[in-house]
Design brief:
Layout (H helix, E strand, L loop, with lengths): L7 E6 L5 H10 L5 E7 L3 H11 L2 E3 L2 H5 L6 E4 L6 H10 L4 E4 L6 H14 L3 E4 L6 H12 L5 E9 L22 H12 L3 E9 L10 E8 L4 E7 L9 E5 L2 E6 L2 E7 L29 E7 L11 H12 L7 H15 L9
Amino acid sequence: MKHRRGKIKVGLVGIGRAGWGMHRRELEKLPRLFKVVAACDVDRKRCRQAAEALGCRTYTDIRGLASDPEVELVDITTRSVDHADQAIVAVKAGKPVFMEKPIAVSYVEAKKMGRAAKRAGVEIYARHNRRFEPAFQHVREIIDSAGLGEVHSIKLCRGGYQRRADWQTILKYGGGQLLNWGPHVIDHALQLLDAPVADMWSDLQRIAAAGDAEDCVRIILKGENGRLADVQIGGGMAIREPECTVHGSRGSIVVRGREIQMRYLSPRQKLARLRAKTSTPPKEGGFGNPEKLRWVEKTVPVKPRRRVDVGTSIWRHLYAAMRKGEPFPIKWEEALEVMRIIDLARKGTEFELPG
């Protein structure tokens, strides 16, 4: 299949915190790969500002932008509740979509989007850009190296104490931490679980934020391989926990900011086979097994072998997918699984969405 060359011409939908504050700035770092040729927002003042800053055409309705013949890619960065409808408009116009997280507000909506894209013969690319966090990439490298042995549990934590009061605290607009940090951290958990989900438990609460959406999330996933992934996202945590903790049969790591603390058995340590004894233990001598374990303990900077950037790496992959036909690293099925877990976490709670 032949692929076009040159810059990808982008239509930016949503001139707000995500679209203007993140996507635009990221694209400005990649001027040889992308160019914003159109922008869309219901706020006419923001449209004028975009036209002045970018020299692009502007629209107040996505249907106009989606039908613009120069637009090759529709980049959707609006409120979560608008994502599915806008994506369907774009794909029906024959335009591929780059979708800010969450891809939708529910699993049902996400599947509907996927069906529409398949019928139209175009792609919806999920912007799970946190796959390219250096710390996440480094953790994956450590796990893959097998230095920790057989990994049995992982904890991922994001949050702080935040009395938030914007639209992202209101359920009908797609608010709540499940759709804010949730897609990123759940995606990490599913990747590190490295197996289909066999079972899960969840708890949702509203602690410090306004509105009616959850601001504290706890999800525990168990993979078919027996591995556990514990996800904690909080808006009511005055003391932050480490972002990531991994425990294996030969060691553990803890990620705090830009450092990784490591403690693992020396690769030269040969562990003798243990056999449980029924005999009466000595009166003195402790409760463990009398063997000397040689530990390696160190703290290293977060620095994966392959250079990644949480802002621009996913755009480079998007360019490679559209211009060179390379596989996009976030599969649509993976993005759907994130939405399925989000729906299951809500089920039976006061935060469950109608329908």
